[in-house]
Request: fold
Amino acid sequence: MKVSDSAQRFGFLVADIQRLFGRRFEQFAQRTLPMTRAQCRLLAYLAVNRGVSQTVLADILETPAQTLARTLAGMEEAGWVRRRSDARDPRIERLFVTRAAVAQLQIARRLSDEVRDEALHGLTAFEAVQLTQLLQKVRRNLGNVVPTPLDTVVPATLRRAQGDDTPPSPHIDGADDGTSEFPDLRPR
Reply:
């Protein structure tokens, strides 16, 4: 069987790995979680982009606004997402992960870890670390040239005014216990 040229191309390979990883995650999630893979992904992004607007979240997730609105309505009804009006512009609603979602995200992370372990089977510990570091470098390279939605970025002048050169650390709305870190579910 001849392998096509596209199967060897970097972008195709990364996308195919993501597709297979997601399908395997979905197999586990169907038995364990009361939410879909898409909902898990949305919560993971919200945990990292605390207080993001719905418009920017749609951009980050590359999801049509109407589809995201329906998903968010269901997640809000389930108690996993909370909306708050923006302090400066009440027309904008900010989105937050609730405490009720934290337990689900922890389960999702464990499932993601299981899929990761399957995916990295046969790699030495050194190879697994090296692969992760190389992928992080590729993400940084692309992150330097792909624009970030404006309201997810704290301008450097504001950080310096606060005496800090790093962006604020993400956390779950109302919880500062570090449980919002889900590196295997978030792409950045």
Observations:
- The longest strand covers residues 81-85.
